[in-house]
Amino acid sequence: MQDFILEENKKLKEKFLWRNVCSLEKSLCHEIILNGKKYINFSSNDYLGYAHHPEVIEKAREALSCYGSGGRSSRLISGTIELHSELEFKLAQFKRTEKCLVFPTGFMANLGVISSLLGQGDAILMDRLNHASLIDAARLAGCRIFIYDHSSVSSLEKVLERTKSYQKRLVVTDSIFSMDGDLAPLKEIVELCKKNKVWLMLDDAHATGLLGENGIGAAEHFGLLGEIEIVIGTLSKALGSQGGFVCGSEDLISYLVNRARPFIYTTALAPASCAAAIQALSLIRKEEWKRKKVLKLSFDLQKELERRFLDSGNFRKSESQIVPFIVGSEEKSLKLANALKEKGIFAPAIRPPTVPNNESRLRFSLTSEHEEEDLKKLIVCLEENLKQ
Ligand SMILES: *Cc1c(COP(=O)(O)O)cnc(C)c1O
């Protein structure tokens, strides 16, 4: 085993695919401190700054005092407290679905839903760029996996045609794709699913709190509220907390309570995480300006990037707060990330297998705490480094 590990580690390093965790001394949403140095942070999913919002922290603190720090038990034994029920009620209300179920992480929500709904003899139909947790969930389920081309309605249509003989089928897509920031063509996908009488599962992790008039997510953005059978979200991004959830019909949620092993055989979400998410949810309703600001920052940044880097092929259009900057090789993207770091900008390189080969990139996450000044600094640094 030891030899195997050493050999694998060596290979990763040679291919510029080695990954490290770096621990920060301080991490605000748009600003971090690492080895005593301050950086503008373009890598946070705390899109609305709620992980540090005083009201969110206060509610989490109250929950800590009242219920203690840990989850203590499975939700089905004695782990469920009023805060779980309140959070699930409010999330269902927010997403305009009948019911909601909270999991300890979004990853586990995906594992729980897919592995309990599908098994041998069933088929899952997935976008090529779906999140890793969806792929792992499909593998765990043991169903047949069919991949359609990224955001291609005609490719999905063909796969739907080919899979008619399967007992059960489920179409699964991200709403905002994590590494590209583009949106799935949801209107067309919903239409196709309805025509084929197949359920759709939407992973709305990055869109929750950001898209739509009320920040409900991609379903609201596309005018599809109530049209999607299963909607997944995370508490760990715009909600500034920790945890995942699934929204759907009352029947679906009761089924999951009884069948989803990542719900049954794990400890309940910690009380402070519940309380923080409840507070963030109420702020989302009030602070519309924040989501508007994030999206404006993204479009402003893209305008500048397009003007300067369209010809060099670095620019790729995004429709959300996530802006990719395509570099190509692993080595080049690492070098660029390091050069930005020298200048006080933190935007780590994203490499395979997270993105396809030769599409290594930097990925800029915009948050409501960034300012136009931060964008200017980023653009100047990119230009300096790419034009030499
Ligand atoms: C982040 C993310 C998840 C996982 O959520 P966690 O709560 O961090 O486990 C699932 N799906 C997508 C699309 C994500 O971006």
Describe the structure.
The protein is α/β, with parallel strands linked by helices and 388 residues long. Helices cover 45% and strands 16% of the residues. The strands form 3 sheets. Strands 4-10-9-8-7-5-6 form a 7-stranded mixed β-sheet, with helices on both faces. It has a 4-stranded mixed β-sheet with strand order 1-2-3-12. Helix 9 links the parallel strand 8 and strand 9. The protein binds pyridoxal-5'-phosphate.
The outline comes out as globular
Average of pLDDT:
96
Residues in helices, as a percent range: 40-55%
Compounds present? pyridoxal-5'-phosphate
Point out poorly predicted stretches: none
Structural class: alpha/beta
SSE run: HEEEHHHEHEHEHEHEHEEHHHHEHEEEH
Question: What are the SSEs and their pairings?
Answer:
Blueprint: H1 2-14, E1 26-27, E2 31-34, E3 37-41, H2 54-67, H3 75-79, H4 82-95, E4 99-103, H5 106-117, E5 123-127, H6 132-141, E6 144-148, H7 153-162, E7 169-174, H8 186-196, E8 199-203, H9 218-221, E9 230-234, E10 244-248, H10 250-259, H11 261-264, H12 271-286, H13 288-309, E11 322-328, H14 330-342, E12 345-346, E13 349-350, E14 360-365, H15 372-386
The structure holds pyridoxal-5'-phosphate.
